[in-house]
Amino acid sequence: MTTSQSVSTDVLIVGAGPTGLYGAYYAGFRGLSTTVVDVLPQSGGQVMALYPEKQIRDVAAIPAIKGRDFVAALVDQAASYEPTYLLGRQALTLEHTDDEAIAFLDDGTVVRARAVVLTSGIGTPTPRPLECGEEWLGTGLSYFVSDPSRHADQDVVIVGGGDSALDWADALEPIARSVTLVHRRAAFRGHAATLERVRSGSARIHTDTQVVALEGDDGRLAKVTLRSKQGEETVVPADHVIAALGFISDLGPLRDWGLELRGRSVAVDRAMRTNLPRVYAAGDLADYDGKVKLMSVGFGEVATAMNHVAVDLDPELTLFPGHSTDAA
């Protein structure tokens, strides 16, 4: 991490998650210097902040990989082009001149860039709270799993119906004493293949059901009360509750940059350009008709963005430079 108060770069990447890290690699492949800014103190974005130990299964050619290992590989891939990282810092404002964009960070650092690529995902995530049991937060209640081994031989209750809830039920079932999955609706939103694995295992599944009480003694959670849509109550043992209810996103200062927004996303064209000059967006932050939010999609989008950046900065370059294997 540089401590310079003024940085000049070809491309400023705002967001050090997987899409931003791959963008740093691809920009280097196109001969561009990069500076990567992220409000979090480490690379990896939500993967490292929320589920570093979770298995990632939706990236081509990788059947399964832990989040932290996936991020480490992306950092290693980008390292060959020596990007500059400004982590634990937030980009507050962005100004434009004829030749560059100027970003002002919250620690006083000024970054002058010839182009900007926004890869900050959904912004700063705040977990949706469980309606009961907040007094157990940090002891018997959490909103994500940082270390699965903590739940070995525990009775674990997982609340939610999306991918995170299913992924944690799938990951913890082999090591926990018991896993109970609770969803307030009848149908799950997560991947069908993960749901099938959970259903075929030993986890107990309660649908059309909510958690209504967490109880225990001496700071140790002991049981959870569930209530079905029909009003029937069931008490299950619980050493820990994982509330995987999703996150509320906040774009923060980006909202005031003059970007064309679509809800919590930034509108882009087929070249991943935003409405601002030489400002692009890729990954979960970017939105266009037919958008699918997958990391693999983000990798393609940021490669598209960097190729167009390269031509914008040097019109004599070709849009498609060939494959990295061509030089081998």
Helix content: 10-25%
The oligomeric state is single chain
Task: State the end-to-end distance.
Answer: 31 Å
Mean pLDDT: 93
What's the gyration radius in Å?
Answer: 22 Å
Beta content comes to 25-35%
As residue ranges, the low-confidence spans are: none
| Alpha-beta classification | alpha/beta
Give the SSE string.
Answer: EHEHEEHEEEEEEEHEHEEEEEEEEEEH
Biggest sheet overview: 7 strands, mixed
Shape: elongated
- How large is the count of helical segments? 6
Number of strands: 22
Description:
By secondary structure, this protein is α/β, with parallel strands linked by helices. The protein has six helices and 22 strands. Strands 1, 2, 5, 6, 7, 8 and 21 form a seven-stranded mixed beta sheet that branches. Strands 10-17-11-12-13 form a five-stranded parallel beta sheet, covered by helices on one side. The protein is elongated. The mean pLDDT is 93.
Topology of this protein?
Blueprint: E1 6-14, H1 18-29, E2 34-38, H2 45-50, E3 55-56, E4 65-66, H3 67-79, E5 84-87, E6 91-96, E7 101-105, E8 110-118, E9 124-127, E10 141-142, E11 155-159, H4 163-172, E12 178-182, H5 192-200, E13 204-206, E14 209-217, E15 220-228, E16 233-237, E17 240-243, E18 247-250, E19 261-262, E20 265-267, E21 279-281, E22 286-287, H6 295-313
Parallel strand pairs: 1-2, 1-8, 2-5, 8-21, 10-17, 11-12, 11-17, 12-13, 20-22
Antiparallel strand pairs: 3-4, 6-7, 7-8, 9-18, 14-15, 15-16, 19-20
Helix pairs in contact: 1-3, 1-6, 4-5
